[in-house]
Design goal:
Layout lengths: L14 H34 L13 H18 L2 H51 L2 H6 L2 H43 L1 H22 L2 H24 L1 H6 L3 H53 L8 H42 L20 E11 L2 E12 L3 E5 L6 H7 L8 E6 L2 E2 L5 H5 L2 E4 L10 H5 L7 H10 L3 H5 L18 H15 L3 E5 L7 H15 L3 E5 L3 H4 L4 E4 L4
Parallel strand pairs: 3-8, 3-9, 6-7, 7-8
Antiparallel strand pairs: 1-2, 1-4, 4-5
Helix pairs in contact: 1-2, 1-3, 1-5, 1-10, 2-3, 3-5, 5-6, 5-7, 5-10, 6-9, 6-10, 7-9, 7-10, 9-10, 14-16, 16-17
């Protein structure tokens, strides 16, 4: 239950709905009790001819209440007829049940925005958190696992919250109201009830205890399945080329089969909640029936007569369904706790690269980028050690070295994808941590080895993060040597390029990323092996586009090919950091 307290903050915008929900639930319970209370004493008078002609003296007891109801009902029979009175009883009960169900519907109506609003805000917070996490976080996590937490776990939590809010608010009110009525009817008989109900609750709690552990296992298996699916979709060419369909299929089927068995175990335990709670409720009812019935037969009914006792049993029977719903809510809460734990693992992940909202604005790059005794460690592994480097404005610096030497890491420090472990990285003499993160990155564009494109139009991919006019997009495409192939498309700039730009060739994709960088028009440019995966013709077109883009800019170029770095002002060789 403590886990769910973290969700209370999401309820604040819905205070009005919560108040309305409680009011509607209360009225629904009142009309439910009234409909039962009307039935037993009135039918006793109608069918047993036991009219009450003397008004009972007032006293605060269930006996006085029932006798008063009998008295006024007897007056109606005397003035009209039994048939008339029976009709009134039917009308009253139908009206009470109608009003009960009307208020039940209104309670659901007021609860729906609370439930859905909580989950929408939680998803928003989770997505916003994912956007703020550093690049290093995603190298340690499986994409399928993150997607699973965003989809399966939030859906599981939504289902749990829906049942928990209803089960832990509405049903306790129902149960407490009915228990209050039972205590009013017979405090002595209700004492036995208070002894038996905790025993039933303990049994149900013991059964539901292991559900949380199974929910954790199910969530992990589900995320494994999503990870395999994501890898399959991304690596379909390789899978087919190496005849690996059987291997990847077996891997997925094993995970799915494990999920099948865990889900079955979860459902077996969850489905026990309702029948066990009903069975235990009937057991308690029978104990009350036997004990109370014996007392009444021996004229020791603690002030209860036969009709009142039947009414007592009738009211108690109404506790069984809310008890079933309450026990089911506890089961669902255990499942939701597991999902909430996995979601909170992301929400509570510390942000290694924190923004400085009150920091300086980097509106213009004027002088230089300086690495001053910079070291960077990934966990305990040194990647860069004591780097001292100054990159003057307008210069092109090439970073070369073997794979794993730290070239990309060094470049990633400039836009603060990572923060230095020691030393300082300065732009125009100011530590980059003292700048607002958005203003820092607004001065930098990046073209990576693998073109990152989105399932959208060509124009929207070029204009990512900006709102330029079409003329500016066309000019950026021209500089990037992309205008010709774009105009050859049937829909031109409105052409959808598919998932990750799958409808374009490698060279076309890369030229779009260059056009995106050109449109941003930054003073600092980072090129991370932008032509290494291209054929000769595509490389020539892309390299011409890069040369156009690099004019009058400060560039950091990571490359292996001589053609890429031959125009560099300085070449920096990295070896083991």
């Amino acid at each position: 239950m403590k886990k769910y307290l973290g969700l209370v903050k999401y309820l604040k915008p819905y205070r009005k709905n919560i108040v309305l929900y409680l009011i509607f639930v209360l009225f629904a319970v009142i009309f439910s009790v009234v409909s039962i209370a009307m039935l037993f004493p009135f039918l006793e008078i109608i069918f047993n001819n036991k009219l009450v002609t003397e008004k009972p003296a007032f006293e605060l007891s269930s006996g006085w209440l029932l006798d008063s109801m009998r008295y006024y009902f007897s007056m109606i029979i005397q003035e009209h007829s039994k048939t008339y009175a029976l009709g009134l009883v039917c009308i009253f009960i139908v009206s009470a049940i109608f009003l009960k169900n009307l208020f039940v519907y209104l309670s659901y109506y007021s609860m729906s925005p609370i439930r859905n609003g909580m989950m929408v805000q939680l998803r928003n917070d989770l997505y916003n958190k994912i956007l703020t996490l550093p690049i290093g976080f995603f190298t340690e996590q499986k994409k399928g696992d993150i997607i699973s937490r965003m989809t399966n776990d939030t859906w599981e939590l939504e289902s749990a919250v829906a049942n928990t809010l209803d089960g832990l608010i509405k049903e306790p009110i129902n149960i407490l109201f009915f228990l209050g009525t039972l205590v009013f009817l017979s405090p002595q008989l209700s004492l036995l009830l208070f002894i038996l109900l905790p025993v039933a609750g303990f049994i149900i709690g013991r059964i539901s205890k292991s559900l949380k552990k199974q929910s954790n296992i199910a969530a992990e298996k589900s995320s494994e399945g999503l990870s395999i699916l994501e890898e399959t979709l991304g690596g379909m060419r390789v899978i087919k080329a190496f005849n690996a369909e059987r291997h990847i299929r077996n891997k997925f089927l094993q995970t799915n089969d494990a999920l099948f068995h865990v889900k079955n175990k979860m459902n077996f335990r969850r489905d026990l909640a309702s029948p066990i709670s009903e069975f235990l409720g009937i057991v308690v009812l029978c104990v009350i029936l036997w004990f109370g019935g014996n007392l009444i037969l021996e004229n020791k009914g603690f002030g209860l007569n036969g009709a009142a006792f039947i009414m007592y049993i009738g009211v108690f029977s109404q506790i069984i369904n809310p008890s079933k719903s309450l026990s089911t809510a506890f089961y669902n809460m255990q499942r939701g706790t597991s999902a909430l734990t996995r979601i909170e693992a992301i929400l509570k992940t510390p942000i290694a690269v924190a923004d400085n909202p009150n920091g300086k604005q980097l509106t213009e790059f004027k002088q230089s980028i300086e690495f001053r005794n910079v070291s960077f460690y990934y966990e305990d592994t040194p990647i860069l050690q004591n780097i001292n480097l100054t990159i003057e404005k307008g210069k092109t610096i090439a970073l070369v070295g073997s794979s794993g030497a730290g070239k990309s890491t060094l470049a990633d420090l400039v836009p603060r994808f990572h923060d230095v472990s020691s030393g300082e990285l300065l732009i125009d003499g100011v530590n980059i941590k003292d700048y607002q993160l958005e203003s820092l990155r607004s001065q930098i564009s990046i073209v990576t080895q693998e073109p990152i494109l989105f399932n959208d139009t060509i124009a929207n991919n070029i204009a990512l993060g900006t709102k330029p006019d079409m003329q500016a997009i066309r000019e950026a495409a021209r500089v990037a040597n992309a205008l010709q192939f774009i105009e050859n498309k049937e829909e031109g700039f409105d052409t959808n390029i598919g998932d990750r730009g799958g409808k374009l060739s490698g060279g076309e994709r890369q030229r779009l990323t260059i056009a995106r960088a050109v449109l941003k028009n930054p003073p600092i440019l980072i090129l991370d092996e932008a032509t290494s995966s291209l054929d000769t013709e595509s490389e020539r077109l892309v390299q011409d586009a890069i040369n156009n883009m690099m004019q009058n800019r400060t560039s950091i170029v990571i490359a292996h090919r001589l053609s890429t770095i031959r125009h560099a002002d300085e070449i920096i060789v990295l070896q083991k950091g």
